[in-house]
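Changelog note: in this version the structure field was regenerated for every chain. One regenerated record is shown below for reference.
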Amino acid sequence: MAEPFGATSTTDDVLNGVNLSGMRILVTGVSAGLGVETARVLVAHGAEVVGAARDLVKAEAATAPVRAAAAKGGRLELVALDLASLASVRACADALVADGRKFDLVIANAGVMACPQGKTADGFETQFGTNHLGHFVFVNRIAKLFKPGARLVNLSSAGHRFSDVDLDDPNFEHTPYTEFGAYGRSKTANILFTVEFDRRHKANGMRATAVHPGTIQTELGRHMQPGNLQQVIDDMNKAAVAAGQPSVAWKTIPQGAATTVWAGIVAPADMVGGLYCEDCHVAEHAEGTAARGGVRPYALDPDRARALWAKSEEMVGERF
């Protein structure tokens, strides 16, 4: 790479001088925040972007800046996708497969965070069902549309440090529910899915990467009670001070989406394939919950990744 990128790099920094004309890219969650910014910078550099969203009316309004930024032949089209409903997931995937046009990059960006205990349309715990199982089915169903050399970028989070997946009780039927415990499980699942998808497809030139965007104020925190997010930040800062680390540094949305486009387009595939990235670099291993940075070894465990894949197939009733 011509330049080193880091925590303060923006999407425009990362794609400076990059022409994406001729590339077709799918981004889920384009009705707000990181999804909109990711679509914007891709379209501005000439890519054809398929944006998926649950609420197309909201997405249509939110993506007005995306269309305004279009250049070099870049364009955006929207498709309906509700990741909390496997019927919607399968319908969207089937329509894309029937259309037949291939993708150079798929960005699994959509998700929910720290919501009250609930269930998806199919009876799965909301965060695991939406963040992991919805994308698991969707991505696998459209995998035949990945071009040789295509990449998958799964948005995970430093929140994976809160908890490993629980393959014996994924729906909290026997385990006390906590909002961030459930979030942590789903974000660890995003990384483990990345590990196994990459293992299964890299021989065909397809690679997968998981990324942490950073600490950003977006609609992702909409389910939290007023003041709860600040309390979480205060607790994180207290732990950071105790561990001799700096306090939380907020990122802008363009800074938050930078690692996504870096891992999906700029970074060498062999450098990021099957790994977890943050601040536009591959993360180092870390232990415990105090350190915000780094990746916990359980999230990259290949045996755990294979076991999650099998459990996910069992839960959704579909083999891939």
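Spot check on this record: Residues 153 and 209 are 5 Å apart (CA to CA). The domain at 11-220+250-315 is CATH 3.40.50.720 (Rossmann fold).
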